[in-house]
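Hi V.,

You were right to ask for the full record rather than a summary. Here it is.
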Amino acid sequence: MSVLLESLCPFFTISIDELKKYEKIHIYIDLKNSFKALYIENVYQELVEQTYSQNNFISSLIFQSILLYVSKWKELIRSLDNIKEWKIFIANDYGESIYHNNISKSYKVSRCLSTSLLDMRLSNIEEQTDVVESVKNKVKENVLKLKTKLLTDENTKRISKLQEKFRPIRNNNFNMAERFLNRYVKNVYFITLKNIESDFVPYYLITRKFKDDDKILHIICSNDHDMYQALLYDNIIQIFSSSKGVVTLDKKTVIPYYLYHSFGFLDNVKRELCSKITIKDLPILMSLSGDMGDDIVGLDGVGPVTAAKMLLDRRVTSSVIGDIDELKNRVNNGGMFLKTETFIIPDNSIWNRILKKYKSISDVNKILTSSYRLISFEQLCLWLEKNDSLFKKESLDILDYENYENKKTPITSEAAEEVLKSLHDFVLPKENLKLLME
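Predicted structure:
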């Protein structure tokens, strides 16, 4: 097997005992957040060099690594006599999101590695009127710093040019995987969303399609902490590799992991705090603290633990935010995060210390409403389900995996090998191809 092919394929391990408790398994692969090797410079540089060193030849090793990864999951499933039904969902997108960009023009702006794109985003940020001025100024300052770095730092310029060359190679491989898996491989569904991010796909499928079937074990493959929102029930787990090894999270362990990056020993104070927070609270905590990796602004000086303490000050949260369903429905119907901007906060409340940093409660409300809409998977699902535009209808059709069944024409591993032999760099082992096609 090619060393590069093997390095591209994510490593995973999982407790067999956990799998033996269920009759069905659904696996959700968050493509970009599972295949982390695609973001390692020497890996994508080698793929670029392979492609540009030959005429009319694009490396297909990313495509083959996706097939290899699916085959390994199928091998595991085959080894379990208790599993009567299984499905594998692969979620992908191309990095643009109408939903998120309509809420915030600065969403993920720090990930832009093109000066022309930064100029366009900066112009859009200038024009956005529903943003707190101090937040807008801070974003503009960061964008200008990034632009200066792109123009002056030689290493940044080199990486930017390299990624520009790599992007079409990656997208071509993703397209190949989508066509092959959706056409030839049963029970595998490659879902590619256009102009909307795909990280909410596991949440959507679990809560909209499979919510009432507790015989399914749902396994989410992603290191994205936004996915923690999907760990709503006892039969859902999330796995990913970290610097300390493979992490497996569930409904019981995700809160301490999110707050303290630990689910081992916690002192009594930390353990008590964790015990009072539920999975449904996570979008609120994430909104209060923001996510600077995605350029989502939260409240100044608030991290996950402080956010948890704010939420648990029920004297304030019940009167200012309301309960979870009330907040969800209010924002979905066009309302704001805070249900009132006129309230009295006790002097000893943690809310008082945080809010006094702002000129007005209106500014706080704008920040929190934006961050909540950007972060909450439920808000995105509800927005799509309004089904009031052609774009939303098309997106919902793509998410309906049953639409893929009529297009499938499963073939044997021998026939698949004939199809793949046309690839100049075909190195996928026959045993893995056989597992894939069975």
